[in-house]
Amino acid sequence: MSDILDVKGLKKAFGGREVLKGLDLAAARGEVIGILGRNGSGKTTLFSILLDLVSADGGSAEVLGLRPDGSGRLRGLIGYVPEKPAFHGFMTAGEVLAFRARFFPRWDMPKALDLCKKLELDPAAGVAAMSKGNLAKLAWITAVAHNPELLLLDEPTSGLDYLVRDHILNGLIHELTEGGRTIIVSNHRMGEMGGILDRVCVLKDGVIAASHGAAFLAEEAFRAAARLETPLSLPEGVVALGGGGALREFAVFGRKNLEKLRLDPAFAGAEISPLLLEDSFKVLLGE
After folding, report:
1. What are the phi and psi torsion angles at 36 (to 5°)?
2. Sign (positive/negative) of CA torsion 34, 39, 45, 48?
3. Beta-sheet pairing, 150-154 with 78-81
4. What are the pLDDT digits (tens) for 41-73?
5. pTM of this prediction exceeds 0.70
6. Distance separating alpha carbons of residues 19 and 209, to the nearest angstrom
7. What is the torsional sign of CA 217, 209, 29, 101?
8. Separation CA 250–CA 172 (nearest Å)
9. How far is CA 282 from the centre of its chain?
10. What does the angle CA 158 – CA 155 – CA 61 come to, to the nearest 5 degrees?
11. How far is residue 90's CA from residue 228's CA, in Å, rounded to a whole number?
């Protein structure tokens, strides 16, 4: 059993629509996992169950040695950045931090204020007038100021300009190097997370449909372009990409599968090149 997260057969339905259909997921201490899935695939529902905000219909989840039981204990131990952060509009950033500190025994106010300085967020700034970027900064600060062992990040850089994205990503790297946090992140721009991910899990049809090491995707994903005169059945680990006529392109996962493909006379003279990480993610999603 994992010492941070152990999810088995998790199920959840809303109004008769099954969102999670027996999902299994485990995370070890210090591991960074990217959850890849289309909108509506169940990423936010998974996070809500882990945070004890929503109860599961079936299966089990153990987080930091505790099970979600409706008590809310887990919320004090997890750092969470929602896709759309929301705070009391009548407060300033500093007041938000002081308010949050009352709910987290391990809250580190010097760390929170230091992060405000690093992220160029004025504690006196009013929440109601904040830009999306500053709201994202405040969400990040409130997620890590109590030094949680587990961070759940739901689209943490979505819609942000490059400077704010860099701030958030640098913060992620700092938390990893300084605290060894376990991080589970869902992000449409998963390519920008490539340098810190240990593993990528594909959430599809309510289950984890595939799991790949990030190093595998970076080193053993290829694009093969070949001129094919007749259709052929594709071997394991090979996915057809776009292209018309006889000139076809394929994604190939795994060096062994690439070597098998090269033995096929139909692929004689095929042009092989690395498949970009972002393109690998699109293939895994079926885009």
Report:
1. -105, 125
2. positive
3. parallel
4. 899 999 999 999 999 999 999 999 999 998 888
5. yes
6. 14
7. positive
8. 34
9. 14
10. 175
11. 64
